Structures are given as structure tokens and as C-alpha cells.
Amino acid sequence: MPSASPSWIVCKFGGTSVSSRDRWDTIGTVGRAHQADGRHPFLVCSALQGISDQLEALLEAAAQGGDPQEALATIRERHEALAHAMDLDSTAVLSEGFDRLDRLTNEVVAADPIPPRLRAAVLATGELLSTRLGAAYLSGQGLDVRWLDAREFLRAQDAPHVPPRRQYLSAACTSHPDPVLQDHLAQAPDAVYLTQGFIASNALNETVLLGRGGSDTSAAHFAAKLEAERLEVWTDVPGLFTANPREVPSARLLRRLDYDEAQELATMGARVLHPRCLDPVRRHQIPLHVRSTEAPEVDGTVVSADGPDVGPQVKAVSAKTGVVAVVM
Ligand code: ADP
Ligand code: ASP
Ligand code: MG
To answer: Which atom of ligand 1 lies nearest, measured to the CA of 243?
Structure first.
């Protein structure tokens, strides 16, 4: 019997967070911890780190009349190596995705120019492959994992006047509370749901993308659809910092921000949050936590309507080529 109103936590794991067996162990631990607290985990995952770039390289090679096989081989090897490290049967888990990518590559080679619809289908294979691996691994670790195709539930807004490139590669999606999705998930309330970031579908049931880095935004849409208690963005740094911590070692961790402050940082180039991910959570007042799979014990940053508990101050300095923003 479905529970009356399950309390969902949506957790998004970025490229580095899904690229090794250790990280998938952390993902499993996060899922179990939420279940132990009586919450229902809904996991949204990116492609393995660097794979979306390799898929772009494949498209680029084909567009230049070159050979996409090198990129294709790298993509295969990366996934096979992870399957091996996870003690999985790589053929059983990956062959459907690889076959699809082979077929799409043939279409790409024959196309001139490559239509945005085909580009989107190729890029989507990264997230489809990573989530197949993750679901197989976590199931083998004893979790009741349900793999979902995000495209069944995340729909692009109808935008007939938007150029096709944007319609297919940087689509905007709707994120109203979604009783159909909620009822669907409530059928197995004790499961851990696992789906893809970055990908959605249009009214023709074609694959569309939410823009590079868009898995954060997918997760925010799912959080809004599920009226989640919280959105957790798990990445490779333990939160939002006053500046990019990889470039500025003295950058400070920002513990609490309001949605506007986080939006300002994301818009001005703090890549840790995709600029479009704040709107869905702000509209539904869902707190967003940024955490690190490298240091899961660190509390990280909380973005919420409460915001900081101190007065105005310089919050962060971020840089975009040719633009510098000082967030007050
Ligand atoms: P993921 O693959 O998990 O989505 P991203 O690479 O998209 O991760 O985002 C995380 C990266 O964002 C960090 O490795 C960091 O270098 C970069 N970054 C840029 N500005 C900031 C900032 N102000 N605070 C934290 N991280 C930042
Ligand atoms: N895999 C996609 C990218 O690299 C989406 C994401 O990771 O957010 O852009
Ligand atoms: Mg990202």
C-alpha cells in the first residue's frame, strides 16, 4: 500500500561522483542513510566524468569528415573499466547502450550537417550508460534500486519559436508538482530510484538536453515535481565557496546562502551549480544542500529562503571571461 505522503530527498551526483566504485559506495551509503531516517531517496546522476566531452568529440570528428572511432573506443573503454572495477558483467549491463551509440554514430557519419535532434540523442547516451552501471552495482550491493528513464517524466516546455538548436540542446522544462510521478514512485516506496540528469523529452517523445552542466537543473525539476523535502547536489567540492577553490586555495566555504545569492554566484560562473537549477527549488521553497562525495562528512552549503544569519558583506568573487562580479 503506498504511503500517504512520502518524504522525498532528491540527490544529484555529478561526473566525478559517479566515476569510480568508491564513489558508488558513497552513493549507496547516502541512499541507505536517507532510508534509515525514514526518507525516500531519488538519485539523479550525470555521465562519467569527461564522457559528455568525448561524445562532443565524436560529433566534432564526424562533422569534420573525420573518424569518430577513436572517441567511441575511449567511451567504451571507460565504461568497461568501471564495470570491471565493479565486478559487473559489462556485456550484460552495457551492450544495449553501446549498440545504441553505434547506431547513432552511423547516422551521424551519414548526416551533413548533423541535426540538433541527433546531437541530443548522442549526448544522452552518457547518462544512460552511467545510470545502467550504477543501478546494476547498487542492486548487487543489496539495495532495491529502480532505474527510471528521466525522459518519461521530464518534459520540455513547448517552445515553437525557439531555434531548434536550443529546443534540443538547451531545453527548458516544466516543474509543477507531478501527481503522476508521485503515484508511480509510491508503488515501491521502499526502493531507491535512480535516473539520469541532463536528459528530457519533447512532445514528439524525442530526446532533448538541458544544456551542458544541466544535471543540477534536472534534479531541481525532479525535486519540485516530488515536492521534495530537500535537494542535495553532491559534487567534487564540499560546497559553494567565495571563489573557485581549485583556482583560489584560500577561498572560504559559504555555509548558508539565500536563493538570490546562490543564483548570483551561479550566473556569474560558479560552475558548481547550473544557473537554471535555482528557480525550481526557490519557487517551491525547497532547501538545496551542496555536498562532496570526496568529503561526505563535511556539512557543505545550505541554500534556502532563510539565507545567512549575518548582515551584508562581500560574499564571493567570481569571474567569467571579461566580467568580474563582487556579490554583496
Ligand atoms: P559536477 O560534475 O559534480 O556537476 P562541476 O564540475 O560541474 O561538478 O562543478 C564543480 C566544480 O565547480 C568544482 O570542482 C569547482 O572547481 C567549480 N567551482 C567554480 N566556482 C566555484 C565556487 N564558487 N564554489 C565551489 N566550486 C566552484
Ligand atoms: N553530463 C553533462 C555534462 O557534462 C551534464 C552534467 O554533468 O551536468 O554537461
Ligand atoms: Mg556540474
So the answer is: 23
